[in-house]
Amino acid sequence: MTNPDTLRDRALAFHALHVKGRPLVLPNAWDAVSARLAEDAGAAAVATTSAGLAWALGVADGDRLDREHALEAVGRVVATVRVPVSADIESGYARDPEGVADTVRAVLAVGAVGVNIEDALYGDEAGNGPLRSVAGQAERIAAAREAADKEGVPLFVNARIDTFLRAAGGVDATLERAAAFRAAGADGIFVPGVVDRETVAVLVDGVDGPLNVLVGPGAPSVAELAALGVARISAGSGLVEAAHAAVRRAARELLDAGTYGSLAGGLDYGELNALLARER
Predict the structure, then answer these.
(1) Known SUPFAM superfamilies for this protein (predicted)?
(2) What's the number of domains the chain is made of?
């Protein structure tokens, strides 16, 4: 396990990056090389994308990946970069709050200093609705907070609220959840699925803490979101989707046309190899 003092310092540094109006921008990574590329591009921290990480391991997203394999992959990311790492742990890779606490201890053991915990339900649990109850999710967040505090590490707990993403509520429901999750120990609130300026501004004003939004084509620019008071901006699975689209285009061209134009503009072998050969 990483030295607790090192983890504590790294966690404090990660907290300090969340500033309203001067957002932490995260080009989410899914493996060691994407993490190092993000760091090399100037990212102040690296956050994993659970979807990209699951896909890289041959598993579909949506609480299908097990804790062991997920955190092995997170550990490889941590070992590759110098900047703080936050792990997207989906719903906590656990059925109950005690299991979420176990996951948080495992996150700290591999050296990550932040987590995303979402409130969406998947699989056989989805019969209870698209989202966990407010009280039930608050218990899971509280368990994560307590587990990290007992380890002496100020883990940044980013509570993801899927009201907009799952069409399960609007601003009022989102703010109700945000208040409950903050009271339970969340440090920040992540609301994917909404980027229109008016709603983002209302959420910034209504959330007591740093607001994280998910961006992609058509979303306001980083500068525009900063002006609204957003404190964290995530690309989510956007980068990995773009990377895999490039793979599919090149493969289809190679197999169908027998040509190689799609490979133009790729990163040089020597550059990539040197990037990974560099000491952490």
Answers:
(1) Phosphoenolpyruvate/pyruvate domain
(2) 1
The secondary structure of residue 100, as a DSSP letter, is: H
**C-beta of residue 184 within 8 angstroms of C-beta of residue 205:** no
Q: Is residue 253 part of a domain?
A: no
The first and second tokens of residue 59, run together, are 């598993």
184 within 8 A of 139, measured Cβ to Cβ: yes
63-93 tens-digit pLDDT: 999 999 999 999 999 999 999 999 999 999 9
- 189 lies in which domain range? 4-237
In a domain, 261, yes or no: no
Contacts of residue 186, Cβ cutoff 8 Å, sequence gap at least 6 = 117, 141, 145, 157, 158, 159, 209
Q: Do residues 14 and 114 touch, judged by C-beta distance below 8 A? A: yes
Does some domain include residue 148? yes
Length of the chain: 280
Q: Is 160 inside a domain boundary?
A: yes
The owner of tokens 């895999």 is 244
Q: For 2-43, how does the pLDDT look when each residue is reduced to its tens digit (9 = 90+)?
A: 676 799 999 999 999 999 999 999 999 999 999 999 999 999
